[in-house]
Amino acid sequence: MTAELGFVHRFEPGSSQATLLLLHGTGGNEHDLIGLARELSPTAKLLSPRGKVLENGAARFFRRLAMGVFDEADLKAQAADLARFVKDAAERYGFDPGRVYALGYSNGANMAAALMLLHPQALAGGVLLRPLLPLEPPTLPNLQGKAAFLAAGRRDPWAPGERVEALARRLEQAGAEVELRWQNGGHELHPEELEAAQDWLARHLA
């Protein structure tokens, strides 16, 4: 663990040419998704930053004003900072900046979506667990050749279905290949959708 490059973070080497950018949910940290990432993609390099925004002491990647209401100015600023961090980390640790995929949950999944929409050069795609459309991009990016796996819950109070589908539409309109998988549940994750995410990663990170 190190606080260099502007984020407290962990980097774990791997034999794959691909790197997973691990983006935790609210109240998480740079350790939260390491175990899950190793299960889903045993050989990937792992880059796991801690969100720098605090909400009642809980780390997040950007501010929210209320449930489902995000501070868009802060989101844009934090996304730009995270994109810079990924670029700098690629130079520091020697991984390919063109083979970075996000693995994000909840707030981290929303930050991954924001990166794809605002800083498409930062990610080749990603697994977004319980995401929604975090903001309307000023212009649609070019996401040709990029891919995203979205895992959503039909009864998720934190990620309403219409905002999940809005994210899938925006990514598709921008040219990304999108797989949207619905689970008959809430904000919690289920083994079968993690197996589907593992299969997706095996296909895209090979």
From TrEMBL:
<comment type="similarity">
    <text>Belongs to the AB hydrolase superfamily. AB hydrolase 2 family.</text>
</comment>
<dbReference type="InterPro" id="IPR029058">
    <property type="entry name" value="AB_hydrolase_fold"/>
</dbReference>
<dbReference type="Pfam" id="PF02230">
    <property type="entry name" value="Abhydrolase_2"/>
</dbReference>
<protein>
    <submittedName>
        <fullName>Putative hydrolase MhqD</fullName>
        <ecNumber>3.1.-.-</ecNumber>
    </submittedName>
</protein>
<keyword id="KW-0378">Hydrolase</keyword>
<dbReference type="GO" id="GO:0016787">
    <property type="term" value="F:hydrolase activity"/>
</dbReference>
<dbReference type="InterPro" id="IPR050565">
    <property type="entry name" value="LYPA1-2/EST-like"/>
</dbReference>
<feature type="domain" description="Phospholipase/carboxylesterase/thioesterase">
    <location>
        <begin position="16"/>
        <end position="204"/>
    </location>
</feature>
<dbReference type="InterPro" id="IPR003140">
    <property type="entry name" value="PLipase/COase/thioEstase"/>
</dbReference>
